Amino acid sequence: MKILGLDIEGRAVLAPMAGITDTPFRLLARECGASLVFTELVSADGLVRNSEKTFKLMDFLPGERPIGIQLFGADPLIMAEAARFAESRKPDWIDLNFGCPAKKVVRRGAGAAVLTDLDRLKQIAGRVASAVHLPVSAKIRSGWEEGKPVAVEAAKILESEGIAAITVHARTRQAGFKGRADWSVIQEVKEAVSIPVIGNGDATTAGEAERMIRETGCDLVMIGRGALGRPWIFSMINPAPGRGDSAAEPGFGERIDICLRHYRLALQHNPASRVVKEMRKHIAWYIKSMPGAAEFRKEAFTLTDPDEVMRRLEEFKGRLG
Predict the structure, then answer these.
(1) What is the pTM of this model?
(2) CATH assignment of 2-241, given 3.30.420.480, 3.20.20.70, 3.30.750.24, 1.20.1250.20?
């Protein structure tokens, strides 16, 4: 499949998730077969203020390609300037976030809040697309609140302004991540535009991903929460989505091996003190539903030495048989 000017394999992509999809996680997702990955959300305001922390969010390694840098902001001129900063890092494309429901984002008029002002959405998309040479994609939600869908109208505007692909999260901002995603919105957007459409929302298994493609006609499926503690989901979908759920989940031992691989990748790219704290949530996701998981968390999450944490994981794996 060709999308964003890229020849890609497979149909499943990793969603950008703040505080989660850093370089180690993206590398692991690519190893597991993710077709595309995105950076965490990058603040356009932070870039133009020369925030070192914000600039660091745009760092990536060759092994993560194809990768897009995702920007969020409310001001068309600032977004265009930020896009030029992002382009200088030489990603494969730039993505505009018009879907984040987080309060700290929407109270600044960014993320899903842009869906309440489609003229501003038009200005941001047009200015960014004109400011850079890279392809530009955008992520939207079905709308701001229930009963007032704007996804189709927004998608048409984005296409008219030169956006090369659209991701549709099939929930409103009001819904957040609760309730069932309404996949019919994805289908409606796909039928309304000629550019590629990526479906997002409740595709947490290979079977659900295949069903989303079949029911909506979307070109790719974006996996977010379904990849937490389960990066192998991409190998279950790509490159043969027709297998559905017939590809077996890895056993407990293999899951811990993948967790250890993740831990070692994290240590290669971040200070040990930071890794110990940030990997706790990932370990919890990896060992979820395993016998003795609750006890292991109580025991291991007090440790401060990463080597000791990994040794305990190996011991835990041995106890599982």
Answers:
(1) 0.93
(2) 3.20.20.70
